[in-house]
Every structure is written in C-alpha cells, then in structure tokens.
Specification:
Bound molecules: pyridoxal-5'-phosphate
Number of domains: 2
Strand content: 15-25%
Distance between the termini: 50 Å
Number of helices: 16
CATH superfamily of the largest domain: Type I PLP-dependent aspartate aminotransferase-like (Major domain)
Radius of gyration: 22 Å
Largest sheet: 7 strands, mixed
Oligomer: single chain
Order of helices and strands: HHEEEHHHEHEHEHEHEHEEHHHHEHEEEH
Helix content: 40-55%
CATH topology of the largest domain: Aspartate Aminotransferase, domain 2
Structural class: alpha/beta
Length: 402
C-alpha cells in the first residue's frame, strides 16, 4: 500500500534527478562541543564551516546563564507572545537590542527566516515595490514571494540598477533590501550608497545583518554601525555570531508596533523559550563588552592571515572577510573537493544550487576567533594540496584560476 503510494507520487525520480545533477543533499552529523574542532560523521576535523564566528556557542558564562534560566523559567514558553508566552526575558532582550542598535525599539523572532518573512509581508502589499539584490538570502526571497508587492531584483550590488528601479513611478512605498555581508560570498554591500539612494528617492532601507552583527561595528552591532548607516529596518540573528538561537528586528517604535500586529511569522508561532532569550541577552552583553572587542580583533587577525595565505593561490579579494568562498563551479567537483578536505582533517562545506546560483558551486570557508594561527596554516595547507591542479580530476577546470 505504502509502496503504491510512493510510486504514484513519483518522488524517487525527483531524488534521482537530484543525484544526477550532484544536487542531492544529506546532513552530516556533527558531534562534539561547538568550537574549532568537531566530529563530522565520526571524523575529527578542524571546523571551518560554522557561523559561530566569535566562539560564543560554547562560552561558559552563556551556558551558565542558559542552564540557570531553564531551571528558573522552565523549558518552553508554551504559547505565542500575544497569547500567554510573553516573558520578562523577551522584553529585557528587546530593550537591550534597541539600546545596542540605538533604535527606539526591537522585536525578537524565533529565527532569521521568520524575521525576514515577517518584515517584508507586514510592511508591503500590492501597492508597493521591493527592490532586492539577486544574491539575497532565501528568507528574503521567500518574504518577497509571500508579499503581494511588485519585486524588482537587481544585479548583485549594482547601484545603477537600484537607481533605475527607484525611479519607476507608481508605487505607494519603495523598499530596498540587502544583506550587509553576503552569506555565501562574504562581500560587503555598498550600504552608504544604498542609504543615500533611498534618501534621494524617498525609499526605505532594510538591511539583513545576519553575518555582520557580532563581527563588525564598534560594539559588534554590525556593518551599518561601522559605516554610520542608519537603515529603517535592521534585522540580525542570535544563532550565528551570538551562538544561541533566534533573530531580531530593530527600528522605530511604530515599525515594531506594526510587526507585532501584522507579522504572521511573529504572531502565529510559539514564543522562543525564555531561557533562549536569557542566553541570547548574555551573548549580546559579551559581544558589546571589551571581551567581544577582543574576539573581534582575533577574528580580524585570522581574516588577515588567511587572506594573505590564500593570495598565494587565489585572486585577491577586495574586502577580506570572515566568509571566504573558494569558487569551483560544478557541483560534483565541489563536493568531491569538500570530501577530500574532510578526509585530510578539514571541514569546509560545499555550497551548491539553490543556495548559490547554478554553476557557481563553491567551498565556503568561515573563520572563527577561536582558530589558532596553526589551525589557519593547517587549513591552508590542506586546501592547497586539494586544489593542486593534478588533483582535481580531468574536469579541465583549474579552480585556482576561477
Ligand atoms: C542564516 C540567515 C538567515 C536566517 O537566519 P536563521 O536564524 O538561521 O533562520 C537570514 N538571512 C541571512 C543572510 C542568513 O545568512
């Protein structure tokens, strides 16, 4: 009976097609304490694939706060924020975020995916125009798809294309949405220029700081703060550099009020466990403290060291970053190189369509403040040996040149 059913669904063919295009995915099992060394499917490896940029996912003070908060508040929030799940730790976290980001208010979401969907659908309807970078994260794309707004996708970081889209008449409100640090490319959006364009054309700027917060800005607020840019809406996550879970939106009081009333991914979901918010608050306290600053200095040191080494074998990057893609191209070759790295003790995940455009598969190297100089040297040695032209099969492709 079950077999019949799956036959009718024809799902095997879809899975087969994924295999044929080398786009089939599985989840490696990660064991060990989050940090520079982990076990990937049982294999011990240096971890260069985590977003735990500042090493906070294993920070003793955050773990202590987390476990105390579980004992104080219980395991879960048991309801949505608007019904019976709104706890003091949510308010305290939001007050801290607003002060830290120098905005009037902030709102916590269960995840960044939910936050981006909530922002775009709550702020726009069929009368509006959303102008979105072609490499924006899937959560932004899905927010655009769910909203009834007209969506204009522009070539990656192309300011002329943004200006052309802004000049179009007829929309009630216009929004420009971008990541600050692009998650799969590690490049820095031209935030000052985008902000100026938005001001000139009476448009709103929405910035996703998922990979900027924690690492950039005088108190780790993100790239906006580093560049003196004040977007209308800024979103960030609590599960990457902050090492815990969840996300936030910061902006004006009226923006936050509207999200509370309209963002369906905020309204129709159980509130984050209070202990998660307490732990995230502790993480933000550390990020904005001198210790956070020291961790930022360490990750920046690591970025410089790795960039200097990679320059020997790869074209230089305009802005070295804690996210460093190594372009390969074909999906199958990318996954082969990733597996080879792992067999030599380096975990660097291959990234394929639809996370990145077709034909641009890559290894995505992410750095952490916890990596030692020896870790960086070892990782570089493995990458270099794996990318040795004689060692990448007969694909005719020299990844070192792409
Ligand atoms: C990871 C990510 C998100 C989603 O955040 P989660 O909390 O993991 O759901 C949103 N935007 C960008 C740019 C991201 O990299």
């Amino acid at each position: 009976m079950l077999k019949e059913l799956s036959k009718n669904w024809d799902l095997e063919n879809e899975i087969k097609a994924l295999h044929e295009k080398a786009l089939y995915r599985n989840m490696p099992e990660i064991r060990g304490f989050p940090g520079r060394i982990i076990y990937v499917d049982g294999k011990c490896a240096l971890n260069f694939s985590s977003n735990n940029y500042l090493g906070l996912a294993g920070h003793p003070e955050i773990l202590e706060t987390f476990s105390q908060a579980v004992l104080t508040y219980g395991a879960g929030s048991t309801a949505s924020r608007l019904i019976a799940g709104n706890c003091p730790s949510h308010r305290e976290l939001e007050e801290f975020i607003a002060t830290w980001k120098r905005t009037e208010a902030a709102l916590v979401f269960g995840s960044g995916y939910q936050a981006n969907i909530g922002i775009i659908t709550a702020l726009t309807d069929g009368n509006d125009l959303v102008i979105s970078d072609e490499l924006n994260h899937a959560s932004i794309i899905d927010g655009c798809r769910l909203s009834r707004a007209t969506v204009s996708v522009f070539r990656h970081m192309n300011l002329n294309a943004v200006e052309d889209a802004l000049k179009k008449q007829g929309a009630r409100r216009k929004f420009v949405v971008t990541e600050s640090i692009f998650s799969m490319d590690g490049d820095h959006a031209p935030l000052r220029e985008l902000w100026a364009l938005c001001r000139d054309h009476d448009a709103f700027l929405i910035v996703d700081e998922a990979h900027g917060a924690g690492v950039y800005g005088p108190a780790g607020e993100g790239l906006c703060a580093e560049l003196g840019v004040i977007p209308d809406v800024q979103m960030g996550t609590l599960g990457k550099a902050a090492g815990v879970s969840g996300a936030y939106v910061a902006g004006s009081r009226v923006l936050i009020d509207l999200l509370v009333n309209r963002a369906r991914s905020f309204i129709f979901t159980t509130a984050p466990p209070p202990a998660v918010s307490a732990a995230a608050l502790k993480a933000l306290n550390i990020i904005s403290s001198p210790e956070g600053q020291r961790r930022r200095e360490l990750i920046n040191r690591n970025v410089q060291i790795m960039d200097k080494m990679l320059r020997k074998i790869l074209p230089p990057r305009k802005t070295p970053c804690h996210i460093r893609p190594i372009q390969v191209g074909p999906s199958d070759l990318t996954m082969k190189l990733s597996a080879e790295c792992l067999s030599k003790g380096l975990f660097v995940q291959g990234i394929r369509f639809p996370s990145v455009p077709e034909g641009t598969a890559r290894l995505r190297l992410t750095l952490m403040s916890d990596h030692t100089i020896e870790d960086l040297e070892k990782a570089f040695k493995i990458i270099k040996s794996v990318f040795e032209p004689g060692n990448i099969g007969n694909s005719g492709l020299d990844p070192l040149l792409t």
